[in-house]
Amino acid sequence: MDDPDDKLAENLGCGVTKLYRKQRMREELRRKLEEHGTGDSSGVVEEIREYLKEREEIGVVAMFAALPGEVDLRELCGGEGRVWVYPKVVGNELVFCRVNCYESDMVLGAYGIREPEDGLEEYGVEEVDLFLCPGLGFDLKGGRLGRGKGFYDRVLVKARAEAMKLGVCFGWQIVDEVVMEEHDVRMNGVIAG
Q1: What is the pTM of this model?
Q2: What Rg value do the Cα atoms of the chain yield, rounded?
C-alpha cells in the first residue's frame, strides 16, 4: 500500500519530494543508529590503512572526529608519515587544522563534536589529497547523506578535482540509493566495515 505522506510529497513537486525523501531517510538511519550503537571500527581503520599503503602520493588526509555511532578513526592520527587534518567549524564553514595527537590537540567544539584547538596550523581545502567523510548513509554510486547542515558539501565543492573523497561508515549504513540534490557532492568511493 502506498504511503499517503509519499503521495502528498509527490504532489507538491520534485524539490519538496527530494527534501522529504532525504528527511525520511535521515530518520530511518538515525533509528538504525540507535539500534546498532557504537560498532567496532577496527576493520574500517585497517581498510583505510591498506588503501593508504597503496597510495604514497597522498600526503594530506582530512579526517573527522566520530560522533556516537560513527566509525572512530582517531588511531590513524599521527601515523603513516602523513599530515592529518581535522575540520573545525568557523562560522558556516569548515577549516582544516593539522593534528599530531588526537588526545592533546582536540577539544569539544561546535555541535558537541571534537575539533582542533585554537592555534593549530591551518591547511587550505585545496591542499587536502584525501577526504575521509562521515555521513548517516552512503550508496555505492557515491551518494552521501549527511546530517543536514551542509558543511561537507560546501567544503568538498572547493576541493581539487583530483582529491579523493571517500565515505567512511559501517556496513549497515549502505543504502540502495541516497537522494541527491544539485548541491550534494558525490564520493569517489566508500570504505565500510
Answers
A1: 0.87
A2: 17
